[in-house]
Write a structure and sequence with these properties.
The chain has 308 residues and is of the alpha/beta class. It has eight helices and 13 strands. It starts with a strand and ends in an 11-residue tail after the last helix.
């Protein structure tokens, strides 16, 4: 009988944890060695209420942790939304039976923020992929995967929740293949140039001369609202853009970043280098505003050029 240790730091893993509980294959849940946040706190409280064995990962010393896994007779491991790269002693302990769930069609979008970058790059599909854990981050052989649509309106939170709904199906298929001896590990394709690195603040700032209308729409929805929203400037003041809509524009010779239309019906429309953009929802210290109200509050008029 397989007994799984599930490594996670998010409530988004609960559908998979529930599956392992119902199939009597969960030995324990391992939580990260990290500062507490609301998501992690809620997860810990739920696990305690369900009387599930909790282990706390010690990123400085594996040995006491490995001894506890021995006591629980753990022989399989699954990882999803864990905050640490697994070190060699733990990989060796599982002897090839430690797998990670990565929400991308590997080798595309290796890295810590795969869903953000897939939305930002306008990908129409993703894959939830189970792969072996190796010393190379997200580089191990692939066991199985499932395709998931990315809707044009999906934000990062929408897509995370959609992925969570697919988790039990993928985990059940993976375990069934493993138990019946039908699991076939496939090597990943050669490395991709599509990566998912840690997001830098400078990458959130809209450059009206470089970003297309589609780029800005995707930057806004990818960051709405967990990952950090798109940022634009009015003078020296920065504001968040949570949602924008592309607008057809045939005007030429107008500097990108120029306000080309402003009224109650149309809203706040900005010229981009390839088209135009309506700013739907804007975040300011005063709250969240539609484009028209934002423009009135901050004295923005047609013809004004926004920063960057």
């Amino acid at each position: 009988m397989y007994k799984y240790a599930f490594f996670t730091g998010s409530c988004l893993s609960l559908p998979a944890i529930n599956y392992l509980i119902k199939s009597d294959q969960l030995a324990c849940v391992i939580l990260p060695d990290a500062a507490i946040n609301p998501d992690l706190q809620q997860l810990q409280q739920w696990l305690q209420q369900q009387q599930i064995t909790i282990l706390h990962y010690n990123k400085l010393d594996d040995q006491p942790f490995l001894a506890k896994l021995d006591e629980l007779r753990v022989n399989r491991g699954l990882i999803y939304l864990f905050r640490h790269q697994i070190k060699t002693p733990l990989i060796q302990y599982f002897n090839g039976a430690l797998a990670n769930v990565h929400p991308s069609p590997l080798p595309d979008y290796k890295g810590p923020q795969p869903l953000y970058w897939q939305i930002r790059n306008g990908e129409p599909l993703t894959r939830l992929t189970i792969h072996k854990v190796t010393e190379e981050l997200d580089g191990g052989d692939i066991g199985c995967d499932v395709e998931i649509d990315i809707h044009p309106f999906d934000t990062i939170k929408c897509l995370h929740q959609k992925v969570a709904q697919y988790l039990p199906y993928l985990v059940s298929q993976f375990i069934q293949l493993d138990q019946t001896g039908e699991l076939r590990w496939q090597k990943q394709r050669p490395n991709s140039n599509k990566l998912a690195p840690t997001l830098q603040h400078s990458e959130l700032v809209i450059n009206w001369h470089q970003h297309s209308s589609t780029d800005v729409v995707n930057i806004a929805r990818a960051g709405n609202a967990d990952m950090g929203c798109a940022v634009f400037y009015v003078g020296q003041s920065a504001f968040q853009l949570l949602q924008a809509t592309e607008v057809e524009c045939v005007l030429h010779g107008i500097q990108p970043g120029t306000v080309i239309e402003l009224d109650k019906q149309t809203g706040l429309v900005i010229k981009t280098h390839d088209s135009a953009l309506k700013l739907d929802i804007i975040g300011a210290q005063q709250g969240y505003l539609d484009g028209y109200r934002f423009a009135l509050l901050f004295a923005i008029d047609p013809g004004m050029v926004l920063g960057k």
